Amino acid sequence: MGAGPLRRDALRSQLWPLPTLGVLLAVAAGVGLPRLDMRILRHIPPSLTAYLFGGGPAAARTVLEAIAGSLISVTALTFSLTVVTLQLASSQFSPRLLRTFNQDRYVQTTLALFLATFTYALTVLRTVRTEASGQPPFVPQLSVTLAFVLTLASVFALVIFLSHLARKIRVETMLRDVHIDADATLRRLLPETGPATTEGTTAPGPPADALPLLVETSGFLAAVDEKALLAAAVAADAVVLIDRCPGSSLITGTPAGVAWSRTGVPLAPDTRRLLVEQTARALGTASERIPEQDISFGLRQLTDVATKALSPGINDPTTAIHALSHSSALLCELARRDLSPRLLRDDRGQVRVVLRRPTLAELLHLAVAQPMQYGAADPAVLARLSILLRELAWHSRPEQRPTIADHLARLRATTAAQEFHSGDRTHLADLADSVDQALNRRWTADAP
Questions:
Q1: Under 8 Å between Cβ of 64 and 139
Q2: Looking at the predicted structure, is the pLDDT value of residue 46 above 60?
Q3: Rounded distance, CA 375 to CA 381, Å?
Q4: Are 145 and 94 in contact (CB under 8 A)?
Q5: Do 26 and 123 touch, CB atoms closer than 8 A?
Q6: Model confidence at 195, in pLDDT bands (50, 70, 90)?
Q7: Does residue 194 have a pLDDT over 80?
Q8: How do residues 243-292 score in pLDDT, each as one tens digit?
Q9: pLDDT-based confidence at 204, cuts 50/70/90?
Q10: What is the pLDDT of residues 92-142, one digit of tens each?
């Protein structure tokens, strides 16, 4: 998983690939269909001809010119609305939500349809011949009819696009989309916790003189080519440990991990140099984080929305509470997954590559630390944080509970530092006590 995920993400997160494909297909259809018209038009039965365009060359040119002119205007409107939506999502919620809009297949398909119809109409227009051209008049009836059908489809697509856009910019929709994408990522990358998934228990530790594996390009660690790493480790008869998780920021010349000889015999200079080069090539970097292998990216987006909503300029704690609800659901799912290091083994079953994963402590800190800081003055936000810890405590395993207890202590300290009404303070204290009970596998029903 190296350059492939980067290329797939680049195609999914850009607006231009699908519209470009639509334009190319439109040019091909605009060139090929008129030729087909010349060959089969005389053989089409009258019962079908009645449904085709029946005007002369002048009427055909007028129709095609009207289609081309109107569709380019509609395309400009669609682009403008899309840009406004992107600007709203960036300023109101989080710049990291722009990927959600760029990856929206409906937006890409709508733009592709509009541009394809415009291009097709222009391409067919050049084949319409009038008597003034000095050649026999020719009207590609089938081609003009298809242009009319594409125009009707574009009109319906515009109406549906406006409805889709109005729904897409709702914060509930954006949070749901982020949650769905993040849940799909962790389900794809993380196995269920069980007896067969305790791969982290045998992860070897590096010696003191391990070889640093330097990074060649600065950026975010976007993808790790596991096959290339395993091949490099086997070729060098070494063990490779990558201690940076996907989504981490990498700086040129700094280590992303270490390697050491499997047998204990020092690696030869040429082997060391080749291993460093191959490892660097196996670590794909990008200018932004992508969710392909980044387990924590969804939580990062949700936390951004929560902290943005808690800023004085926006002051929307309800949105922050909704974002924390989605974060809680993801954390509870993560607690049921195996977050131990991923181990890659050679054909003999020996560990050759160790890939670090984020721990639950890191993910929990990511989800609650900033909302706790920026929402400290709002009892409703602190109450939702307590409920998050309670829900996570119920799904946690014994080794995970000290982390939850630590964040509960921080939450209690934050609450104690605020000047809340006595009723709010009592309610928050009761919620904190319910977290303690959940940690002890007791769940007390809330009073009606």
A1: no
A2: yes
A3: 6
A4: no
A5: yes
A6: very low
A7: no
A8: 999 999 999 999 999 999 999 899 999 999 999 999 999 999 999 998 88
A9: confident
A10: 888 888 777 778 888 899 999 999 999 999 999 999 988 776 678 889 999
Three-state SS annotation for the chain: CCHHHHHHHHHHCCCCHHHHHHHHHHHHHHHHHHHHHHHHHHHCCHHHHCCCCCCCHHHHHHHHHHHHHHHHHHHHHHHHHHHHHHHHHHHHCCHHHHHHHHCCHHHHHHHHHHHHHHHHHHHHHCCCECHHHCCCCECCHHHHHHHHHHHHHHHHHHHHHHHHHHHHCCHHHHHHHHHHHHHHHHHHHCCECCHHHCHHHHCCCCCCCCEEEECCCCEEEEEECHHHHHHHHHHHCEEEEECCCCCCEECCCCEEEEEEECCCCCCCHHHHHHHHHHHHHHEEEECCCCCCCCCCHHHHHHHHHHHHHCCCCCCCHHHHHHHHHHHHHHHHHHHCECCCCEEEECCCCCEEEEECCCCHHHHHHHHHHHHHHHCCCCHHHHHHHHHHHHHHHHHCCHHHHHHHHHHHHHHHHHHHCCCCCHHHHHHHHHHHHHHHHHHCCCCCCCCC
Q: For residue range 365-376, list pLDDT tens digits in order.
A: 999 999 999 999
Beta bridge partners of 224: 283
Cβ pair 183, 333 in contact under 8 A: yes
Tokens of 370: 């900033």
Q: Which two tokens stand for residue 394?
A: 């119920």
How far apart CA 181 and CA 89 sit, in angstroms, is 17
CB atoms within 10 A of CB 393: 24
* Relative orientation angle of helices 297-309 and 360-374, to the nearest 10 degrees: 10
**Token pair of 215, please?**
């990074």
* CA within 13 Å, CB half, 277: 7
pLDDT, mean over the chain: 91
